[in-house]
């Protein structure tokens, strides 16, 4: 069983998760595939997760694998989160002259400031007006001697057209980066991210996919892959399934483009599912997690905000863990 098809692990919160999977008011298919449809989050929040009695409530879609499938996301991500959005969240990432100082002698930044730094840097990258801050020998010496204090953690794809520090116009010691084909989150990636968030105390985690991602395209096309590449494609497959379901009119590159966004939410969900540490940091307000997609043609990063169902997912996972703990603590019935 591949890790990403194991959605049934949240069966204890089945009712709530089912609502996450197919919430009332789910958006109609977006004919453009990659555009962000209007936010259609239902006015009423899903009910609190219910315990095992309702754990077999099924999403509308039959599960592809054994058990109850749940969804890591829905296709209508809201735009920039309130928590992390800078004061000028314009679509071009240009936050004006309010550049947040970062580097030598700067103190810790907030998630909103970290996001502003990335937005500003990306705007410079897109316009060709890069500053290449923190890139000199003095900066190298500084961070080598004093240690690293990056302001953001970023999980993205290994694609060579995605040079992270350059597309955010940042330098040495600025961002803590994990790169893996398809920007998936297995145990190694989750552990590295836990280090960036929990040990280095970066307040912002960006999970960033990109246009024309070969890994996602392979998963979307059903291409035959070999060796360890298969594990990457398998990890992306659930995102492709959702893209197909939400956008049945799409195929080929358009389907892959829709799957890129779904795969961002998939990864966020996988991280939450696998990492109580990250969930705790998010729940305590110490870390903000946002999705993003970089257009490798323009260099522009589209910000997707927080997972549209973040609070519900965190609550469902909390309930799952509580149920597991309760089951573990319960003594076996006598005589059996
Ligand atoms: Zn890629």
Describe the structure.
The protein is an alpha/beta fold and 336 residues long. It folds into two domains: 88 residues, no CATH class; 231 residues, Carbonic anhydrase (Beta-carbonic Anhydrase, Chain A). Strands 2-1-3-4-5 form a five-stranded mixed β-sheet, with helices on both faces. β4 and β5 form a beta hairpin. α6 crosses α7 and α7 packs across α8. The N terminus is likely disordered. The structure holds zinc ion. The site of zinc ion has 7 residues, from α6.
**Broad shape:** globular
Series of H and E elements? HHHEHEHEHHHHEEH
CATH topology of the largest domain: Beta-carbonic Anhydrase, Chain A
What portion of residues belong to β-strands? 5-15%
Q: Decide which structural class fits the backbone.
A: alpha/beta
Q: Which second-level CATH architecture of the largest domain applies?
A: 3-Layer(aba) Sandwich
What is the averaged pLDDT score?
Answer: 77
Please state the CA-atom Rg, rounded to the nearest Å.
Answer: 20 Å
CATH first level of the largest domain = Alpha Beta
- Identify the strand order in the major beta sheet: 2-1-3-4-5
Name the CATH superfamily assignment of the largest domain: Carbonic anhydrase
Number of helices: 10
The main pleated sheet reads as: 5 strands, mixed
How many distinct domains?
A: 2
Low-confidence stretches: 1-71, 73-98
Short note summarizing the structure:
Helices cover 38% and strands 9% of the residues. By secondary structure, it is α/β, with parallel strands linked by helices.
């Amino acid at each position: 069983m591949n890790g990403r098809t194991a959605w049934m692990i949240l069966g204890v919160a089945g009712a709530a998760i089912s609502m996450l999977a197919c919430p009332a008011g789910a958006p109609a298919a977006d004919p453009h595939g990659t555009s962000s449809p209007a936010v259609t989050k239902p006015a009423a929040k899903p009910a609190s997760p219910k315990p095992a009695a309702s754990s077999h409530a099924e999403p509308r879609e039959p599960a592809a694998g054994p058990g109850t499938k749940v969804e890591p996301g829905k296709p209508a991500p809201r735009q920039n989160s309130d928590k992390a959005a800078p004061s000028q969240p314009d679509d071009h990432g240009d936050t004006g002259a309010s550049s947040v100082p970062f580097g030598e002698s700067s103190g810790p930044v907030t998630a909103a400031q970290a996001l502003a730094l990335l937005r500003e840097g990306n705007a410079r990258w897109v316009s060709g007006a890069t500053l290449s801050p923190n890139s000199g020998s003095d900066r190298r010496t500084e961070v080598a001697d004093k240690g690293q204090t990056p302001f953001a953690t970023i999980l993205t794809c290994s694609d060579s057209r995605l040079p992270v520090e350059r597309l955010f116009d940042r330098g040495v010691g600025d961002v803590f980066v994990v790169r893996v084909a398809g920007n998936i989150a297995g145990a190694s990636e989750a552990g590295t991210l836990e280090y960036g968030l929990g040990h280095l105390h970066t307040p912002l985690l960006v999970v960033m996919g990109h246009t024309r991602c070969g890994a996602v395209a392979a998963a979307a096309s059903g291409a035959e892959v070999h060796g360890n590449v298969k594990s990457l494609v398998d990890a992306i497959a659930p995102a492709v399934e959702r893209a197909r379901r939400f956008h049945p009119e799409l195929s080929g590159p358009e389907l892959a483009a829709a799957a890129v966004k779904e795969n961002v939410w998939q990864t966020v969900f996988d991280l939450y599912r696998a990492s109580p540490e990250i969930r705790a940091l998010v729940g305590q307000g110490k870390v903000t997690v946002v999705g993003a997609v970089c257009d490798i043609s323009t260099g522009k990063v589209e910000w997707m905000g927080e997972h549209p169902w973040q609070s519900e997912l965190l609550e469902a996972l909390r309930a799952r863990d509580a149920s597991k703990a309760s089951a573990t603590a319960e003594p076996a019935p006598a005589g059996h």
